Amino acid sequence: MSNLRERMMSKTADLRSAKDIALDGQQTKTSSPRTAPGMAAALAAAQQRVTELERTGSTSELPVADIVPNPWQPRKVFNEAKLTELAESIREAGLIQPIIVRRASSGYQIVAGERRWRAHKLIGKDVIKVVVVDISDQDMAMLALVENVVRDDLSDYEIARSIRETEREFPNRKRLAETLGIARSELYRYLSFADLPAFVLEDLNLQPRLLGANAAQEVVSALRDRDTKAYEIARGLWAQVVSGELDQTKLAKAIRQALDNDEKQSGVSDRNIDKIFSGKTQAGSITKDRSGLTVKIKAGMLSVDQEARIRKLIAQIFAAEE
Fold first, then answer.
1. pTM recorded for the entire structure
2. What are φ and ψ of residue 262, in 5° steps?
3. Is the pLDDT of residue 294 over 80?
4. Could you tell me which of 203, 221, 141, 209 has the C-alpha nearest to residue 175?
């Protein structure tokens, strides 16, 4: 399974923290770029945006009950042990860093800091320190994704689901990929999750780490333009992935092999071949199997007139069906 967080972090190992990045108008010239290309640049931009929001927003306290999560939050499953540890730390020392929220039609939405908000709920805190800011839907979506990828590893499926939700806030996928700092080919790998069978997605909603982006794209490719029987074969093999009997990286290959075996068995039992003769010479054949009816005529066996008559006959047959 690809690990977006590790790749992002490896490219940002030498970056300064967000608080050390100068804002517009305060930057000094450097001999080399401050950020690496791609995802590192996206990360640095997000860090700087959070810092700007913290500096320009108004600090206050709000009832915990008046706050709801970021609607673009990619993480649906939180580590309970880490959340409990954070809650105990807040109980003993208080909240050091306020969460960032924005006003919504009803109450407030979290921009950054959902773990701290959840920790407050866990220990029964009624109020929480906040910084209230003005921020667009697009920034909300991107910050939610980048913050979670950097701070704690997300599964490929959670990233993919967030990208799908974020996609609506961008004019096109090229712009979305640029903002995320990834190639469009990688973006499409994540987007391929949406084309998986419903029974796979249902399990991923409960256990998002069952399938990685590369494996998901391979499965989608293996099932493309296939019939209902292929999906039933895939369902059986997917159950083995869920139970741990089959590695998720081998799922697509297993599906292809099962489909090939099924087609070979069906082809042997269902195929019917009739030879066509011109005198004592075989001129061709008519083959009927599960894939259709195939008529083959050897080169040089038909005159121009005969070929024209065959074409006319076929046209008449299908015209009569209209």
1. 0.56
2. -65, -40
3. yes
4. 141
